[in-house]
Amino acid sequence: MAALVVLQFDGASITAVGKMIGLMFLLIGLQNLLFGAFVNGAAQWILWIFGALFLVAGVVLMTSPEETFAGVADILGFIFLLVGIFWLLEALTERDTNELWWFGLISGIAMLTVAFWTGGQFFIEKQYVLLVFTGILSLFHGVSDLIKAFEIRELRDLHNLAA
Hints:
Blueprint: H1 2-6, H2 11-36, H3 42-63, H4 65-74, H5 76-93, H6 101-119, H7 123-162
Helix pairs in contact: 2-3, 2-4, 4-7, 5-6, 6-7
C-alpha cells in the first residue's frame, strides 16, 4: 500500500515518505525502551538513552516530513548502500533454508548498483530517485515477505507431516 502512495509523485508522496521515516524512528525508540526493561547494567541505560533520543527524533521528523524527505534525499546513496549490504547478507544467510534466496541476492545487488549510481546525482534528481526507489523498495520488500511467508508455511507443513 505504501508503494502505491509513494509512486504517485506528488506532495502526498513526499509527506508520506517523511512520515514513514518519522514513524520508523518512533518505533525504534519504543523498541529500545522495551528492550531496556529486560536487561541490566550499562546496557539498560544505553538502550533507554538511545530510545529517548530516537523518540525525540521521531517526533521532530513527524512534525516536518518535507524537511525529513529533503535530508534523506541528500544522503540517499549511503542509505541504499546499507540496505543493499543488509539484503545481500540476509540472502546469503538464508541460502540453506530458503530456496528462493536468490531473489534477495538479486535485490541486494540491484540496491548496491543504485547506491553507487545515486551517489553521483544532483539533489533534485535524488529527490525523484528517492520517491521511485522507496516505492520499488516497498514492492520488493512486500514480495520478499510473501515468499518468506510461503516458505515458512511449507516448513510448518513438512514439520507437521514428520511429527
